[in-house]
Structure formats: C-alpha cells, structure tokens
Amino acid sequence: MNRYPLWKYIIVVVSLVLGFIYTLPNFYGESPAVQVSSAKATLKIDESTRVRVEEILKSAGIAHNGIQLDAVGVKARFATEDIQLQAKDVLEKTFNPDASDPQYVVALNLLSASPRWLTALGALPMYLGLDLRGGVHFLLQVDMQGALTKRLDSTAADLRIQLRDKKVRHAGISRDKDTIVIKFNDAEARDKARAVISDLQRELSLTQADLTLTATLTPQSRKEIQEAALKQNIATLGNRVNELGVAEPVIQQQGADRIVVQLPGIQDVAEAKKMIGRTATLEVRMVDESAAASGVTTGADVFPHRDRDGNVTQVAVKKQVVLTGDRFTKASSTFDQNHQPAVSVELDAAGGRIMRDVTRENLKKRMAIVLFDRGRGEAISVATIQGEFSSQFQITGAFSARETNDLAILIRAGSLAAPMEIIEERTIGPSLGAESINKGFHSTLWGFIAIALFMIVYYQMFGVVSALALSANLLLLIALLSLLQATLTLPGIAAIALTLGMAIDANVLINERIREELRAGMPPQGAISEGYERAFGTILDSNITTLIAGLALLIFGSGPVRGFAVVHCLGILTSIYSSVFISRALINLIYGRQKKLTKIAIGQIWKPGLTATPIDGK
Amino acid sequence: MEFFRIKQDIPFMRHALKFNIISFATFLIAVFFLVTKGLHLSVEFTGGTLIEVNYEQTADLEKVRGALGKAGFTDFQAQNFGSSRDVLIRLPLRDAQDSAKQGEQVMAALDADAPGATARRVEYVGPQVGKELAENGAMALLVVVLGIMIYLAFRFEWRFSVSAIIANLHDVIIILGFFAAFQWEFSLSVLAATLAVLGYSVNESVVVFDRVRETFRKVRGLSTPQVLDHAITSTISRTIITHASTQVMVLSMLIFGGETLHYFSLALTIGICFGIYSSVLVASPLVMWLGVSREQFIKPQKAIEGANADGAVV
Fold first, then answer.
1. Which of A239, A335, A508, B99 has the most crowded CB, counting CB atoms within 10 A?
2. B56 and B120 housed in the same domain
3. Mean of the per-residue pLDDT values for chain A?
4. What are phi and psi of B292, to 5 degrees?
5. Nearest residue in B to A131, CA atom
6. Which residue numbers in chain B have pLDDT < 50?
7. B165 and B110: one domain?
C-alpha cells in the first residue's frame, strides 16, 4: 500500500541530484575578472584577442586563473581584487593607447567561481537584480509622437520636391498635428497630385475635401515607424553604453514605447545620463582624391577608417558636407543582385536630389560616410561611386552578412530616431546590495530553522520527513531560479522565505490527516495512505488559489512586484512536488516495507473520539 | 505532542452572528480610516524622488533639513531610516525636466551644508509610471478576485466562492485600513504582500470547505451548522499550526529583514492574523446564510455513474 515503484524513487533521486548540481554554483561565489570587449561595432573580438590578452598578462607578470572567449568578449579571472585592478590597468593601457578614443571596453566583472564542468552543464549562480548587486537603472520613455512628427515633417518636405518634379502646382503644404494638408488652386492639379502622391508615398492615406488633400500615415506605417524608432534608439543606446565600460549592461524594450537600461556596478549617474542623452551625427562627404594622391592634407579633414581586415588607415575628405544624417530614412543589411551582402540605404527626397547631382558629377570617385560621436569623426564606410543614383542605393563590397548588419546599425546610430525622457531612475550603492542579500539570507535561515525544529518536535519522524521535504523544496527552488536565470531581487528573497512558510502547510495537512485517521482507529499503513490521499485534493485546491494570485502579480506587476511573483509562482510548483511526492517517497521508504507496522512516530495521538454525530436535543 | 485536545465539535456557528458583527465593525473602521486618512503612498505610486544617504556618524537631521531648505527645496521630508546614521529624503514631483536632476542637486546641497553623506540609493519615479502602477495594481486585484471566484465556483459551489471572496477581501480592506490608520508607507512590495495574502488566506477557506463538503457527503442527519462546526473543529489544529509556521517565517523577516522588508512583513502579519479569523469565522457563517445544504453535494454523485465513491478525493 505504501510502496512506490522503482521509477518513482528514480524520479525523486534524479530531481534531487539535478537540484543539487544547479544549486551548487551559488556556493562557489564569484571571482574577480576583467572583461575585454569591443567598443565599436566595426571591431571584432576573436581568438586573436584572447591570445593578445594572454600575452599582455604574461609580459606584465600577472598571474591569472584562466582566460576564456565568449560571445561578449574575452574574460580573464584573477585570484584577488588587487590583481584584478592591476590587470585592468595594464590591459586598458595596451588595448586603448589613446585614452580619448577607446577601441575596446576594458571592464571589471565578476565571474562565477564554480568549476568548469559545472559551467559546461549550464549551471550558473542565480542572476542578481540591481537592488542586490548595485548599479543604475533607467526607464526611458520614447516620444513616439515625436518620431511621427519628425517623419511627417520630412515627408512634407519630400512632397514639396516630388510635386515640383512632376510639375504639379499646389498652393501650400503644411503639417497640422498628425496630418499633412496640401492646398490646391484647381481640381485638376489636385487630382494629378493625388495620383502622384499615392504612387510615390505608399505610407500615406489621402482624403480630399474641396481643393485640399489631407494625408495621414496609414496605421501600418505608423506602427512600422514606431517599431523602427524604438529599435534604432535601442541600437544607439547599445553603442553608447559600450563605451562606459560596463560588463553586463541590459538594454531592453519594455512595453510598446519604453526602454530599460540597467548598468550594474556603475555609480556615476551623471556620466551615465550624459552618455544616454548624447547625440551622434552622420555626414556624407567626398574623399579628397588630390590630397590622397599628394599626401598634402591641408584644406581637407582626415578621419581614421578601419577596413574589413581591421587595419586603420587615414582618409582625407573634403570639408564640404554632402549630406547629414537626418536625410537618412533607412539603413538595413540586405543582399545585392549578385547575392553578396550589402547595406541598403534610403534617403528622403531632398537627400535623394542632392545625391543624384553629386553622384552624376563624381562617377568613379570615392565617397565617405563619417560618424561623429563625442566630437570625434570616424569614416565608417568609404565606397567608390559606381553609377548615378538618388534616394535609394546600396553600399557593396566584400562584406560578410555580420559586417553589413553592423554598418547598417552604425549608419542608423547617427541619431536617435525619437527623443527620449527618463521617467524612472534608480541608483543602488553596492554596500546596500550586499546588506540586502545578507538580511534576506538571515530571514530565510532563521525562519527555516524555527519551522524545521517545531515540525520535528511536534510530529517526530513525520516532522523530520516534513523538514527534509522543505529542504528539498528550497534546493529545487534555488536550482530552478539558477537554471532559468530569473532575476533575483530582495522581494524575490522575501518570496523564497514566504513560500517556505506557506509550503509547510501541505505537510501539516498531511500529518494532521494521518493523525486523524489513526485517532479514528485505522491501522498505521492505512492511515498513512489515507492521509496522503485525502490531503492531496485540499493541497491542490489551496495551492491553485495561491497560484492564481501569483500569476496575476506576474502579469500586472512590474519591478519589485514581478521579482516577487516569479519566485512565488515557481515556489508553489516546487512545494507541491516536494511536500507531496518527495515526502511520500521518504515515508514509503521508512515505513512502507514493514508488513506488521503497529506504531508510527508521528507524535502522541490523543483519542477523545472526535466524531461528527448528531447531538440529541439540539 | 498534541496541542489541541478537543473533546467535541466547538459550536462556532452558534456565535455566527456575533462574528459577523465583529467583522463588519472592523471592516467599517478600516474603511473609515481609508476614507479619512487615506493611504500614505510611496514614491513608486506618487512619483517623486527618494534618496537614502548614509553618514559615518549619527546623522544630524536638523542640519540635513537646513541644508535642503537653503538649497531651495520646500516640500521635502527627511527622516531616519533603519539606523540613526541613515537618512531618507523624499521629494515630491516637480516639473518633469527638473525632477530627474533632483538627486544630484540634493547631494550637492548636502555636500555644502551637511557634509559626509554618501548616497546609498536614489530613486526617481516620473508621473507617468506612478499612475500606471496604481492601475496595474487594481487590475491585479480584480484578476485575483475573479480568478479565485471562478476556480472555487468550479471546484465547489458558488456559495463557497462568494463567501470566500467576501471574507478575504475583508482581510485586504483591513490590511489597507491598518496602513491608513498608522500612515505606514504603502509601497509596491506591500501591494505584493497584500495580494499574496489574498491568495494565501483563501487556502484557509478551501481547507474548511473541503471538510464541509466531505462531511456533507459522508455523514447523514447533521444540520448545516453542525457540519460547519465539525469541519472547523477538525481542521482547527492544522489551521493554527500552519499559520503559526508561516508567521514564524514572516516574523523572521520582520526581525532580520531590515527596513526594506519591514512593511512587507507587517502587511503579511496582519494578513495572516486576520486571515485565520476571517476565512474560518467569517466565510463559514456566510456560507450558512447563503443557504448551503446537503442536497447540493449529493446530486452530482448520482449524476456521474461510477464516480469515485468518496467525492472528497480528487
């Protein structure tokens, strides 16, 4: 009756072993490390960077505990923080000889100190939230209306040019809030314009009244503009954050129009804010061929250009600006007619006209796209003009798909697509974080000990089993949090404590039920079996109601509430498993094999004969 | 060891009316405080800036206030937080442009006139965020209430679901009433605690209702109050032990968790204490007033041929 088949025991053992393995990294703590990653999208980190780091450290006589290369960059571990700081200085000096123009991000980081086989299994320590590790958190609101207005303004300018090109006379084009209003003197011009606009500007929908055309953006294109604006802002922020030297920055979309930026370890809010608000500009200029030939660069500007092999050359370009970044409407990586990776660029109508004139006059000459960021220019693309083109063109070359992608991002990074505003800001000092971890840990520890002691005294052997099941619950919960890499915050730690406090309910229910069955005169084996069976329905019901509350918090909560809800929900799942399944397995193991079981250690059973019988005379 | 040696069913239902009057009175008091005093909402909801600074020695609050006043801040609060060396400064929202910089301005003002402060935490919440949080909080509450009601109606009977929700919403109002009466800070984590309590104390009602259903099915000839009395009495030891265990954990948070978890655990404490009372002594009488009876549980057994003889078991 109280025996589990072998496979159930195997499940219990396997789950506990897995739980143990994935909890393990949390005990090893973290070791100081220095991380070298690229500060520029054009610069790649690969095996050669790893070798370079190794050699630099070797020649400086700094001992390390391993150097690894991953998707982020090269990471070197060190025994102590002193060595870590030394190593950072050395690496910083060698990788960025010109401190005003950093090519690499050399940042302090903490790496899991767990052995390599654990890391290979994907077992990592829990991911701590900013409130526990310290750092800066920004929530930025993207001004979508601003993005739309900007687009409408440039579209209105385009329309003026396009109508003039097609020789359609109009009596004025203006933007009025979310619409562009075009006035005409006669119906013929209006109809002609209508045809031209619907042909050239697919993103506009037109309505007409008398001699006016009113153009609005179609819902589809509004959506596209907003999505593109958000993406571009995220990409731009990514580039800028790179230069702050943060080891693990988080830049994520939140909701339809918000961006979360989290910079662990950064304390200088002012600097971080300045970085976020900075604007970069993009300029298209012609390469000064005479200067390039003669080497005399007076009268020309010289910018560094990193070619695809990573070599930096100096390019002399004319001072005259052909186009600025705000003329670029799109840049994306694509494939040319020969199926080679290329960057497809789109300019607005005004930009297209200029480009057509320039390319006609400068065939076979070189054109440079220069990105100015923090007052420094860098030629991100130098290409030969192969033919006359206007608003749509491609930049081709021996690019890889990844390179075209990076170049497209760089071109788009020229400006933020839409203005942003900081609507939430949080700075947490590192000492506060450490203190919070400590406090959360102690709350959980002492609460756990108190509950376990009480259970053991009150329910004896069954109490020991309950306490073990509760420990298994804690183990599995932490393993699950580590495995999912869910962000652990202080409310999350509180949820761990609370979940444990609530989880014991299931075992109390079971134990009380067993006592009750014994009181009613049932033999021990039967009482155990009945107790578990009967309690299960109740346990399920009560946990599901708790889970409903947890899920609602997860869906509607944000920030600290969500941190609480994630742990709470996971905790409910692990607690059903451990308090019912694992505790039963233990009880079966202890008592299940004894055929003539006459007594079980569940504490004293007091028998008053508590039964539900009708009381006479009531 | 056995704490609860109850010889016969305790006649709780004989006092049903008294219990309901007591709960109604507490409920009214809570509502009174909520209306007259209102909740002391944290920066997360109202928007504004929160700065926690730490001094090496005991912080001189007067000096801090003086420094801020001199720097042109008017409507601010400065108080100790956790220890005498930590000071928490709250600033209300000003116009958006200005607010984002308040943190830096405050630190500059302190450096000038009350030196030695290091910022431990700066939080700025814009006006858009606060409103949204309040709306989301209300939505979460609504979803929890509806979700639990639907589940209980499906698993038990509509009478149970209605009484469980009334009983537990009354807990929520009482928690809020405490926060309003004592002007404790109502933050996001307190909201989380409140909703967690809602889910948790429904448990309590579920356990009792489970027993009610089982007793109705198994024992014939009992009046409804007797069934309820039996159900409450036979689960009371579990109720008290479980709540005590959870309370021990919460107490541990209250003692060791520091200032940040203080109000969180306080909300849970109130929730747990009133949770026992309301889910047992408020929900059960309500079920009785709503007219629960044996017939409601016998029918389905006849309808489903070959169902498990013991309907109480899943």
1. A508
2. yes
3. 83
4. -75, 145
5. B121
6. 301-307, 309-314
7. no
Specify the pLDDT at position A310.
66
Last residue of a domain, one of B73, B97, B125: B125
How many whole angstroms separate alpha carbon A260 and alpha carbon A130? 12
For A384-414, the pLDDT digits (tens) are 888 888 788 888 776 777 777 777 766 766 5
Quick one: tokens of A375? 């007052």
Q: Is residue B299 part of a domain?
A: no
Which of A335, A300, A339, A340 lies closest to A316, judged by CA? A300
**β-strands A312-324, A392-395: how paired?**
unpaired
> Taking CA atoms, what residue in A is nearest to B195?
A549
Residues B160 and B52 in one domain: no
Residue range(s) defining the domain that contains residue B251: 12-39+130-294
Residue of A nearest to B97 (CA): A421
Q: CB contact, 8 Å: A146 with chain B?
A: no
Chain B residues lying within 8 Å of A490, measured CB to CB: 260-261
The answer to whether residues B280 and B207 belong to one domain is: yes
Mean pLDDT throughout A324-337? 78
Helix runs in A76-186, H state only: 81-95, 116-120, 130-133, 144-165
Kindly report the nearest CA distance between residue B28 and chain A, in angstroms.
25
Per mean pLDDT, which of A58-62, A69-73, B91-95 is the most reliable? Answer: A58-62
Mean pLDDT of A583-609: 79
pLDDT-derived band of residue A575, with 50, 70 and 90 as boundaries?
Answer: very high
**Element housing A424 (H / E):** strand A420-428
Residues B229 and B286 placed together within one structural domain of the fold: yes
The pLDDT of residue A22: 92
pLDDT score at B301: 46
Query: How high is the pLDDT of residue A576?
Result: 92
Cα separation of B165 and B169, whole Å?
A: 6
- How many structural domains does chain B have? 2
Task: Count the Cβ atoms, other than its own, within 10 Å of residue B212.
Answer: 27
Which are the contacts of A120, defined by CB distance < 8 A and separation ≥ 6?
Answer: none
Q: B2 lies in a domain?
A: no
Closest CA–CA distance from residue A302 to any residue of chain B (Å): 38
Question: Could you say which of B107, B125, B143 is where a domain stops?
Answer: B125
Is residue A9 over pLDDT 70? yes
Pair (B164, B183) in one structural domain: yes
DSSP for A290-320 reads HHHHH---TTEEEEEEE-TTS-EEEEEEEEE
Determine the average pLDDT of the residues in A433-439. 87
- Same domain for B71 and B165? no
Give the pair of three-digit tokens for residue A145.
């209306």
- Shortest CB distance from A537 goes to which of B121, B139, B210? B210
Chain B segment 221-240 residues within 8 A of A by beta carbon are: 221-223, 226-227, 230, 233-235, 237-238
The CA distance from B242 to the nearest CA of chain A, in Å, is 5
Residue A187 clears pLDDT 90, i.e. is over it: no
Dihedral angle, C-alpha A272, A274, A276, A280, nearest 10 °: -140
Residue B112 sits in a domain whose CATH number is 3.30.70.3220
* Whether residue A617 has pLDDT greater than 70: no
Q: Please check whether residues B100 and B239 belong to one and the same domain.
A: no
Beta strands in B24-161 (DSSP E): 40-41, 48-54, 77-81, 83-91, 118-125
Position B21 in a domain? yes
**CATH code for position B136:** 1.20.1640.10
Say what the pLDDT of residue A207 is: 86
A601 contact B CB<8A: no
Reported confidence tier of residue A496, pLDDT bands at 50, 70, 90 = very high
Task: Using alpha carbons, list the distances in angstroms from residue A266 to A40, A85, A139, B107.
Answer: 20, 16, 16, 17
Beta carbons of A19 and A468 less than 8 angstroms apart: no
B224: in domain: yes
